[in-house]
Amino acid sequence: MALKRVTLLDSSKLLNGDGSLVRQRKIPTPPPAKGTEPSPLLAHEQPDAIEKALTTVYEKMPHWVQDNASIRSGYRYIENSYHECAKSLFFLHNETMNVWTHLLGSLSFIGLAFGTIYAAGPWSNAMEKASWLDVVMWSCFFIGAIGCMGLSAAFHLFACHSQDVASAWNKADYVGIVTLIVGSAIPAIYYGFLCSPTLQTVYIAMMAVAGTATICVSASDRFRTARFRVPRTIIFVALGASGVVPIIHAMILWGFDFVTEAVSLGCMAIMGLFYVLGAVLYTSRFPERYWPGKFDIWFHSHSIFHIMVIAGAVTHYIGLLYMHHFWATHSHTCALARAGVAKLRTGVHQSTEMAQRVTYRRRLSYNTKSNKVRKVKTPGGRLVVQYVHKKAKGPKCGDCGTKLPGLPALRPIQYSRLSKSKKNVTRAYGGSRCGHCVRERIVRAFLIEEQKIVKKVLKSQ
């Protein structure tokens, strides 16, 4: 005997006067005509049907999910299970791009963080070795980028769990955005205000306070509703734009040319452009607003916003490398860096490295019995006079008298042409000196030469 299909009436509308349900009535449906039974569903023959079975449309979703009416389909069912939500990684829905863009971005920045710190950390053999404070500043940015993208991917993945879980992960997503903004601003302030530690500390503290206030505001349940979509975006953009204030202040103090090199201003501008463009597309809901239903799965406004965030973070990472390169080539010394930029802009030297190049000679022994004046040859074969400092004997600094370690020291040597006139003979630096005194002499030499350049420019005008 063949079984007959039955359908059930909607019990939500069948109520007695006392509110009790009416007994459901089974209505038999006629069997399909002979030869018209449907064939079994095969994945390789009807893949679209499988995707439609796993997702639903906008009208059938609860009100707390209905955020963008221009995305008509591709919504996942409410699962109430983390395991079922995780399965949605492996089929297409309207959150697929949102999840995978930031999941891959977070994993990529984890690799960049370990690779960069390992290759240029204090323990490495790199030419431009970073200090521990540099590593701390880099870590602020990496934690912000990894946290922002990781929390964002988790929110979009588990948003189909339940209303309470989606709300909690949405707040975590906002915390990640604030972490990225503050974590990106801190390294730029650090490198931009190496010449003023006080202002450096003040601006970093101000960014931390502003970020904490934004997190407190974003913790509100009303903040995540569709009604506050535009104010929410404005608050985050304003927090990011507050990082422009320290840069402008640095320009007023030290000039545009110096700040351009010190904080890699070009990279920072491109990064801001990516973030602002992504925020505008996210707020205006372009392109799905003008073509509803056409961008349900691929490249709707939120997924484009995610791509812009990744592009901005990568640009900031490149700028961070430029900042470290600039300051490492100038020994993290403010006066030396400013002198190098001045020479670079006036055309005396063609690169920052050449602007701080000084001839070094390795001294094999501290105890010397050489005369006060010696005739030596330069690497080019030129005969010159060298003055040796009287305090060169013994392992002590020739300037401050600090006791030096028992290792050969680097001595910057300055030569002058052999001349009978003592006026043309310049005293050499001479003597073994500690790193602080050597750096101070180099800075002093650059500042003197910088003053000469300024005088020449003024005379030419």
From TrEMBL:
Pfam families: HlyIII, Ribosomal_L34e
Bilayer-crossing regions: 99-123, 135-160, 172-193, 199-221, 233-256, 262-283, 304-327
InterPro entries listed in its UniProt record: AdipoR/HlyIII-related, Ribosomal_eL34, Ribosomal_eL34_C_sf, Ribosomal_eL34_CS, Ribosomal_L34e_arc-type
Residues the record lists as binding Zn(2+): H156, H302, H306
Subcellular location: Membrane
Membrane topology, as annotated: Multi-pass membrane protein
Gene Ontology cellular-component terms listed: membrane; ribonucleoprotein complex; ribosome
Gene3D superfamilies: 6.20.340.10, 6.20.370.70
Coiled-coil stretches noted in the UniProt entry, renumbered to this chain: none
Family to which the UniProt record says this protein belongs: Belongs to the eukaryotic ribosomal protein eL34 family. Belongs to the ADIPOR family.
Name used for this protein in its record: Large ribosomal subunit protein eL34
